[in-house]
Amino acid sequence: MNNLVIGQFIPGKAWLYKLDPRTKILVTVAYVFLLVFANQWPAYLLAAAFLGLTLVLTGQSLALYWRGIKPILWLILFTVCLQLLFTGGTPVLWHWSFITITVPGVVNAFYVIVRFVLIVLMSTALTLTTPPTSIASALESLLAPLKAIKVPVAELALMLSIALRFVPLLMGETDKVMKAQKSRGMSLSTGSLWQRSKAVLPLLIPLFIGALQRALDLANAMEVRGFESADNRTRYRVLSFTQADVLATIATIAFTVLFIGTLLIHF
Amino acid sequence: MNAITIDNLNYGYQEGEPLFQDFQLTVPEGQWLSIVGHNGSGKSTLAKLVLGLLEAQSGDITVFGQELTPASLAAVRAQVGMVFQNPDNQFVGATVADDVAFGLENRQVPSAEMPALIEAALQQVGMADFADREPHTLSGGQKQRVALASVLALKPKVIILDEATAMLDPAGKSAVLATLQELKAKYQDQLTLIMITHDMDEAALADRIVVINDGELALDEKPAALFVQGAALKQLGLDQPFETQLQEALPKAPQQYLSKQELAAWLSTLKA
Amino acid sequence: MAINIEGLTFHYGGAKQSPTILDDINLTIPSGRITAIVGQTGSGKSTLVQNLNALLLPSGGQVVVGDQVITSKTKEKALPAVRAQVGMVFQFPENQLFAATVLEDVMYGPKNFGKTAEEAEELAKKALNRVSLAEEFWQRSPFDLSGGQMRRVALAGVLAMNPKAMVFDEPAAGLDPQGQLELLDLLRSLRTEGKTVVLISHQMDQVLALADQVVVMQDGQVAAVEAPDQLFQRSRQWFLDHSLDLPTPVAFAKDLEEKGYHFDHLPTSVADVAAQIAKQVDWSQVTEPVNVAGADWQSQQASQSSADQVLTSNSRGGDLHE
């Protein structure tokens, strides 16, 4: 039912699964950061190669990634149109009334597509191979220095992982309440804007009350199992860097150096 | 020794609407007790009071000789585990193993010791093969067995099950009940089980059944002695088990409780 | 109003990507009867009933509700008319309550389906009386009620729409024995009125006690459509293969058949089992004490610490559930 690939975790045993989640997050952040500066085709080519390697190391089929891209195609198309329409310059390729399409516009649009797709696929590779809780605990570990300025990092990480855990549940609940109210004649597609927003209440209120009830139940269950504060706990999932992480780091540094090199050299 | 002693308990949700008035109940160590009663009879509230999730207006609750006070709360909870009704709302971890780990993490068990403890706990409920599964891929019955494993990992002396099978299908229900029977057989007197339910077939597994009605202890019997009290049960909004109803509908029958198998065996002697 | 299911197939999205959930279902759900749909979790029961009121549209085939035909091409605009005719009570329906008062919540359905406020209120009051929710609760918030009372409000919310057919998904789940009996009575009274009643249940005792027709689902297909007294004649192995329980009286009768008893018809209740056993035994040879209506076992038992002895002394003659 849920065809969304982006943000989903799929269990596996490929090489990328062995990496420490902190490494994966840092590499992804560095990659996205570097891409912002890409301006010429060699940089994009290099970035695409790095992504290709990453995707292969996830051990998932490329068809899966295609399914991940499909739902956001319209978003990409929209951005492309904007680029085509609003990039000026010469030479002009085509002109009709207020619409002018230029060569730099086409080039820009192409780069936007590539950049967009690269970023989406890289993030997908991260979430696909890393369970949400690992992402949460990696963030907790990476943000640990913020504890010094009284940021409750442990609490925030626990909240995040519990919130992630309840997402599928709340989606199922939304579907159920929606169907129940539709059976009682709810219609969200007719009437004025005011009527339509009011029509959402029979959906939102049960969801809100249900979520509240779940929260109360969960608090009880956590308390009974000895939860007092997020800080005074040991951890089942211990994060540790291994050889794989060293390799990944070296590869990323090599990529970074090459990438900066392509930016400096003018083709 | 008594596992749980409840003495002169007074509690009401609202001022002037008492539910429990001078309520008394003693649960000896190693007993399997069922607490039954219709919806709203106060049976779940009782469990929450014992675990300090609700606070009584007055009265004493003692767990293995230790009185329940704000100061002793953690120590009491270390001895009493609880499985709740809704399988989804007590699943804290992102995977089965993480969920069992949650309690261990709270008790500050060293990380290195956890995998073995988790494995052992999951083994006992027959869920060891599911350690890496995420909750939404499990059936209700499987989730409840994980909840049971999460409690078992903490090695409690008492486990309270608050309508833990009420939301399950028959297959899930019987898997959970079979697991409970195995656990009780394994731990014998080391484990006190308190099962809150309104299902009489389920209650029949216990050594003792306490019927609660509007905060009052209406009946307190062994299952065999309780089930023959058809009129009393009906008045309390509860069912007699099938076998007892049948026994009473026959022209003649032994004047004691017989299980389904025993009744069938007795009937077969008449036919011979 | 009968519902006809003709060659119904269903899958989410395109046929290539997602597995077939319902596979060529052909079925007639008659009016004035209770049709039970049984099968293990994941067999397609829920998907099937959601096709009955167009919450899901068929991928292939059609569902005919009264004079409306629902196919994959049915337009959104046509759906409310179907839903007004087929009321749906989901599992744990109390989770759908939302309004400020009980009465308003029950009025929601009728108002959506075009009733005026006065008409809706009239229908709501009737429905609330029907589920025996006392008038003192009508102006209260549904969230202040007990679980059992909330269930009644939710049921009333669908009853008030006065649909010609009603679908119940595990309506008795979580109810205590008294609540379950009342619910079964409600279903029977709907049948008496000539409504088309569909019941999804895991509890075979309920199915045996209520259903006129049982549909067994397995892996998205219909494995059997039979009257209960015919269906439960099948072998124990058949029920094991379909992950279904047998109703308690039937299971007990099958046990006794292995011990030499004979049942000339499938027993549907305790009294029925007892009557059929009684015919086959020469009771004059039996030395056990006689069971007399009103005989009190308690007096012969070593009394435990019973807190309430008075309750046990009433007659027992009429207290068997049907």
UniProtKB/TrEMBL annotation, chain A:
The chain crosses the membrane at residues 21-38, 45-66, 72-94, 106-128, 246-265. The keyword tRNA-binding does not apply. Its main location: membrane. It is a multi-pass membrane protein. InterPro entries: ABC/ECF_trnsptr_transmembrane (IPR003339). The keyword Transmembrane applies. It is found in: Membrane. It comes from the Bacteria. One of its GO terms (cellular component) is plasma membrane. Keywords: Membrane, Transmembrane, Transmembrane helix. This is ABC-type cobalt transport system, permease component CbiQ. It comes from Fructobacillus pseudoficulneus.
From TrEMBL, chain B:
It comes from the Bacteria. It is found in: Cell membrane. InterPro entries: AAA+_ATPase, ABC_transporter-like_ATP-bd, ABC_transporter-like_CS, ABC_transpr_CbiO/EcfA_su, ECF_ABC_transporter_ATP-bd, EcfA_1, P-loop_NTPase. SMART domains: AAA. Its main location: membrane. The keyword Protease does not apply. It is a peripheral membrane protein. GO terms for molecular function: ATP binding; ATP hydrolysis activity; ATPase-coupled transmembrane transporter activity. The keyword Transport applies. Residues 4-239 form the ABC transporter domain. GO terms for cellular component: ATP-binding cassette (ABC) transporter complex. Keywords: ATP-binding, Cell membrane, Membrane, Nucleotide-binding, Translocase, Transport. Belongs to the ABC transporter superfamily. NCBIfam families: ECF_ATPase_1, PRK13648.1. This is ABC transporter ATP-binding protein.
Automatic annotation (TrEMBL), chain C:
It holds the Pfam family ABC_tran. One of its GO terms (cellular component) is ATP-binding cassette (ABC) transporter complex. Its EC number is 7.-.-.-. InterPro entries: AAA+_ATPase, ABC_transporter-like_ATP-bd, ABC_transporter-like_CS, ABC_transpr_CbiO/EcfA_su, ECF_ABC_transporter_ATP-bd, EcfA2, P-loop_NTPase. Residues 294-322 are annotated as: Disordered. Signal peptide: none annotated. The keyword tRNA processing does not apply. It is found in: Cell membrane. Keywords: ATP-binding, Cell membrane, Membrane, Nucleotide-binding, Translocase, Transport. Residues 3-244 form the ABC transporter domain. SUPFAM superfamilies: P-loop containing nucleoside triphosphate hydrolases (SSF52540). It is a peripheral membrane protein. Residues 298-307 have a biased composition (Low complexity). SMART domains: AAA. One of its GO terms (molecular function) is ATP hydrolysis activity. NCBIfam families: ECF_ATPase_2. Belongs to the ABC transporter superfamily. Energy-coupling factor EcfA family. ATP-binding (A) component of a common energy-coupling factor (ECF) ABC-transporter complex. Forms a stable energy-coupling factor (ECF) transporter complex composed of 2 membrane-embedded substrate-binding proteins (S component), 2 ATP-binding proteins (A component) and 2 transmembrane proteins (T component). This is Energy-coupling factor transporter ATP-binding protein EcfA2.
